[in-house]
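User: Structure please.
Assistant: Input sequence and predicted structure:
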Amino acid sequence: MTAQFGGPEMLQLAEVPDPVPGPGEVLLEVAAAGVNRADLLQRQGFYPPPAGTSDVIGLEVSGYVTGEPVCALLAGGGYAERVAVPRGQVMPLPAGVDLLTAGGIPEVACTVYSNLAMTAGLAPGERLLIHGGGSGIGTFAIQWARAIGAAVAVTAGSQEKLDRCAELGAQTLINYREQDFVDAGPFDVILDVVGAKYLDANVRALADGGRLVVIGLQGGVKAELNLGTLLAKRGAVMATSLRTRSIEQKAAICAAVVEHVWPLYADGSIRPVIDRVLPLAQAGDAHRLLAESGHFGKVVLEV
């Protein structure tokens, strides 16, 4: 699937040459591709793929490599029948997860684990605030954090989404349209997809020694930071991007996810939350759904 920059209507199916795997890469026959907010930004021309990466949208897939069912983390190219993937970013399916569902797991699992475990060092007994608890990232992060023994608070824009977050294990439920999440603090770790709009409030909501991890910029890129508040809390603000990390770093993250996260699917601590599966030809509809926040969990495209 290729796209000219613009609205969801610009997404269109097209025939393009098959990708040719380079050194250290394998060819993956795609069964399903997860849809992420980063895909919407790329469609609009705001999030170009790294140099040398396919300009086809798509950051995660499931499918087959030499007949074996797998899933994979990508830098791009997922909305297609075939994609070339660095071998270290190909993972076995989690136990008990079917092939289509697995298309919506690699990006959220790698994003959450790399940020909450490897970067922020979330520990048992600490309090975590997740902005956008009903998103794919949010629904996974709630379950993973509860599985390791952390306390979880979430923000969401409707009572229905908050109730469903509670079913996944969230303990503190905050409707951001009606409540100030700072009042529900302090939090040891905050996972933020909003960015500039929430920066000041996020810092004020941190506990002593708290860590704010920014992984999205839905609320803008520039904001004023009160360093005095951050200093008084001995806090830290970290911002990360998974897509732009090196192949070696991504391989290390994928290996850690297979070792530490996949067993949580096997024992039932984490279950996939899929809002719906749409055919690849309806990728535009999937993008509209995410833009309107009309989903809970992941949206997956069947190829």
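The mean pLDDT is 96.
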